[in-house]
Amino acid sequence: MVPLAFAQAQENSGEDRYGRCMAMADRVPDKAINLALEWQANGGGVPARHCEAYALVHLGEPAEGAARMMQIAKDMRVGRDMPVRMGKRVVANAGLLADMYGQAANAWLLAGEIVRASDAVDLALSLAQRGSVQERELIVDRARIAAADKDYELALNDLEYVLKGDSGRKDILILLASAARGSGKYARAATVLAAYQRAFPDDPAAFLELGNLEHVQGNKAAARSAWLRVLQLEEAGMNAEAARTNLEKMDGGLETKD
Question: Over the chain, what is the mean pLDDT?
C-alpha cells in the first residue's frame, strides 16, 4: 500500500512527523503504533490515526487496520480530526479519499474479507479521476481482489485495460497470466508470461505460474520442470512453498496450488 501524504500536517512544523511515522510502520510497526498513539494524545488527529492503522496492517492485524481506515475516510470527508490550514479544518479531496479507500481495500484483502475489499475498492474507483494513474492502480487492486474471489474474467478485463493504458507495466503480467489461465485463455497467458520472463528471467514467481499453466494443459513433465526451477531459485518463501506443494499434489493426483 502507498502511504497517504498529509503535507498539511507538517505545515507549521519543520519536522515531517507523519513521514517518519509511516516509514517506521513499514520497518517496526509496533514502535510506529506507540509513536502514533503518543502523537494522537498530542493532537495528531487523522495523520496520526492513519499511521496507527497502517502499522496495524503491517503488524499482522489487517482487518483492524482496514476498519480504522474506513472510519478515517468518513472523517476526512467532513474534516473531522483533520489538520488545520489557514484557520480551517482541511476537508479531503476526492483523490485523498480514493487513496484511503484503496488502502482499506488492500487491507481487507490481506484479511481475507473479499466482499469488504470489493466494496472499498469500488468506493475508491468512484472517486478516482478517469484515466489517471491512481485509477489504474486501483483497477489493479480490483483485479487482485477479483482473482482472490476466483472471478478471473473481471481480473483479466481489468488488467488488460491497465496494460492498454500503460504498455510498460511488466509488474502486472504474472497476475494477468494467472487470470488468463483461470479464464481458460491459455495462449494469452503464455504470451504475457513469456514477456514477463524476458524482462525478469530468474523470477521464481514466473516459473511457479509457468508450472501452473503447463499443468492445467496436461503438460505434467513441463510443469514439474518449472516447479523444480522455482526450488532451485528459492529454497524458502511463498513461491517455494507453493511449488513444493504442487509437486507433492501432482504425485498424489491432486489439484495444484496457485
Answer: 91
